[in-house]
Amino acid sequence: MLKRIGVALGLLALCAFSIVRSTRPPRPVPATAPDTVFSAERAMRYLEQIAQRPHPMGTADHDRVRDYIVAQLTDLGLRPQIQRATAIGTRYREAGRVQNILARVPGSEPGSKAVLIMSHYDGVGAGPAAADDGAGAAAILETLRALRARKQPLRHDVIALFTDGEESGLLGAAAFVRENPWAKDVAVVLNFEARGTTGRSLMFETGPGNLNVARALRNDREASAGSVTAVIYRTLPNDTDLSELAVLGLPALNFAFADRVERYHTTQDDVAHLNPGSLQHHGSQMLTMVRTFGNETLPRARTGDGVFFDLPLIGLVVYSQSFELPLALLALVLVAVLVFRVRKGVITGVLASVVALALSGVVGWAIGRRLEGPAMWSGLYATALVLLALSVTAACRALAMRWSTPRGMHTGALIIWLLLALGLSIKVPGTGYLFTWPLLIAAAAALLVRGRVVGEWVAAAVTLLMLAGFAYGVSVVLLGIFTPGAIVLCVMASLVALLLAPLLEVIVAGARWWSAAWLALAGALCLVIAWVTIHPSADRPLRSGLVYAENADSSDAWLGALGALGGSIDPWTRGVIGTDSTVHTPQWTSNLSGYGAHFTGRRVPRVALGAPDATLIADSMMNGARRIVLRVNAPPGTTGLVMRARGAGVLTASIDGRVVDTTRYRSFGRPRERAHEWVMEYWAVPDSGAIVALSIPAQDHITLDLAARRPGIPPIPGVTIPARPSDVVPSQTGDVSVVYRERRF
C-alpha cells in the first residue's frame, strides 16, 4: 500500500511541478537592486504612468503616453525622435497616421549593425493596456536605464522602437520597415508582447534560421522556450509587430506572457491585475539578450532551424534539426528490439492504444464544445477532462488485457509514440522532440533487466516535465478548453498514461476495472463541482461592447453590438439592446466594421453626431483605367474610419501617396475583394483628411461607404443604459459610436 501511495504521490508531484514551473514567473526584483540589474519594481513606476487610462490611436491619452515615453528617454540622456508617417499595413486592410518613438544607445563600434528591441505603446479602446503592451514599453525603458548605468557600453548600438498602431493592424512596424532609415542598420530583433496579465514570458516565435539565436538564448537561465511553439505559430493566423519585420529576413526572438487571457483587451488589463513577476521575466530576458547580442558579432552567423526546449536544472536544450530524425530512428531501433523480445500481445496493445486515444479525443470534444466563458480557462474543468481521459484509457487497457500482457500492452503503446515521433520529425521538423525524448528513455527502460524501475522513473520525470506543463499551457492558457484545447488535453493525458503504464500498474495493483471506475467517478465529481462553482464573476468576467450607430443620410439610428448573434451575447448586453429575432437591422449596419461583423440591436432615437465625408479631388484616365482621387474627412474625436468601395473592382489603391500592397494580406481578407469590395480602415485621421486614390475599370462607378468610430455612447433620448454588473466588462474597442455615410462617384 505504501508503495502504491508513494508512486501516486511522486507522479502527482512531477505533474504539479511541471505545471507550476511552466506558468509561474520569477519573483520581481526590488528597486534596491543594483542599477545594472532589471527591476520590475522600477519598471512598474513607468507602467503606472503609461497605463493610467485607455490610449488607442487618435486619442488625447495616446499623445499623453507618447510624450511621457519621450520625456523618459530624454531623462536617460538619449535623443528620442518621433517618426510620423502614414502607414499602410501589409497583413491587414488597415492604414493610419502613426507616431513611432525611437531612441538609439550608441555602442563602442560606431557604424556597426544594431540590436533592435521593440514593443508597441498604443492600446485598445477598452482598457489601459498595462500588459498589452504597457509592460513591453516599461520593460524597454527599464532596460535602457540599466544599459545606461553600465560604465562600459556594448559593442553595438541598441535601437529602441516603441511602435504605434500595433492594435490597429501592425501599422507602426510597417512604417518603420518601409520608411525609417534605421531599419537597414538592424541585425537582430527582439519583440515583446502580451496576451494576458500573468504567466511566464515565453519565447514563442523566431525569425528564419533560429538555431543561432536559440543558442544565444541559453545565456538566460530563466528562459522559457520550445521550438514546437515557434513552428506552430508560423502556421497560425496570428500576428505581432514582428510579422511586419519578417520581410527583412533577420534573426528574431518574440516574447509574450499569456495567462489569464480572459483579461486580454478588457478594462481588467490594468496595473492592478498585472503580475509584476511577468514584467520581471519580460525585462530580465530583454536585458540579457540585449547584452548578449550587443557584445557578440553582428550580423549573426546564418544557420538553419534548431530544436530547443527548456528543462529544470539543465536550462535550454538546443541542437540542430538535422539531429531530429536520427534520434527518432534511434527510437525506432529500440522499439524494434523491444517488439522482438516481447512479441506476445503487442498488436493488441497497438489497437487498444489507438482506441483509447480516439475515445479520449471524443471525451474532449463532447465536453469541450459545451464550455464557454470562464469555464474555458478553468483548471478544475481541465482536471475533470484529464480524469475522464485517464478513465477511458484505463478501461481500454483493462479490456485489452484479456488478450495481452502488461509488457505487450506497453510495447504496443510505444509503437504509437514511435509513429508520432517519426511522423512529426519528418513532416513538422522542430516538434518531434516532444515524443522522441520520452520515447527514447521509456524504451530504454523497458529493455533493462536491472535498474528498470529507476529507468521508468527517469522516463516519468522527463515525460511529465516536458509534457504536463506543455499540455496545460496549450489547452488551459492558450487555446482554452473548448473543443480544440479539450481534445488536445485529453489525447495528451491518454498518451502520457500509456507511456507511463508500468508505474501506473503499480498504483492499480491489478484492479484495472476498479481504477477506471474510480477515475470516472472522480472526473464526474470534478465536472459537477466545476459546473456549480465556476460562473462569470468580477475575477473572470464576460466581455461586452455596445455600439450606437446612426446613418447620416437618413434618420435611422440603432443601439446594438457587433460580431455576435443573439444567443452568444452576454445577459447584460442582451437586456440593453434586445435580441428579438424578428427585428431586421438595415443593410448599412453591415458596413460598420472593416470585416463585415454582424450587427444586432434595436432602433433608437437619432442623436445627430458629426459625420464623415468624401470629396472628389481628381477624376482622370490613366493606363486605360479610371483614377479617382478623394479627400476623406472624419469628424473630431474619430479614432477609426472604415472606407468601403463597392460596385467596381479596385485595380490599384494608394493612401496619402503610399501604395497599398495586398500581396501579404491574411487570406481571410480576400473574399470581399473578389466580390468587388475594397475595404480599408484608417486610424487617427488627420484634420486635413486622408487622400485616397483608387483605380477602377474605365466605365465603372463606385459607391464609397464611410463609417467613423469614436469612443463612448452619447446620451440617447428616452434610453437609459444601466451600469454594467461586476461580472461584465468592456472589451476590444469598448463602447463606441459609429456614424455611417454613403457617397457615389
In short:
With 745 residues, the chain is an alpha/beta fold. Helices cover 41% and strands 21% of the residues.
Describe this structure in words.
The chain is an alpha/beta fold and 745 residues long. The chain has three domains: 2-19 and 322-533, no CATH class; 31-304, Zn peptidases (Aminopeptidase, 3-Layer(aba) Sandwich); 542-745, no CATH class. It has a 15-stranded mixed β-sheet that branches. Strands 15-16-21-18-19 form a five-stranded antiparallel β-sheet, with no helix packed on it. It has a two-stranded antiparallel sheet with strand order 9-10. Helix 1 crosses helix 15, helix 11 (346-368) runs antiparallel to helix 12 (379-400) and helix 11 packs across helix 13. The chain starts with a helix and ends with a strand.
Instruction: Using the alpha-carbon principal axes, give the shape.
Output: globular
**Gyration radius, rounded:** 28 Å
Q: Would you state the CATH class of the largest domain?
A: Alpha Beta
Main sheet? 15 strands, mixed
Q: Approximately how much beta-strand content do the residues carry? A: 15-25%
Distance between the termini: 84 Å
- How many helices? The count is 20
Helical content, roughly?
A: 40-55%
The count of β-strands is 24
Number of domains: 3
Within the CATH hierarchy, at the fold level, what is the topology of the largest domain?
A: Aminopeptidase
CATH superfamily of the largest domain: Zn peptidases
Backbone structural class: alpha/beta
Instruction: Report the CATH architecture of the largest domain.
Output: 3-Layer(aba) Sandwich
Low-confidence stretches: 669-675
Mean pLDDT: 94
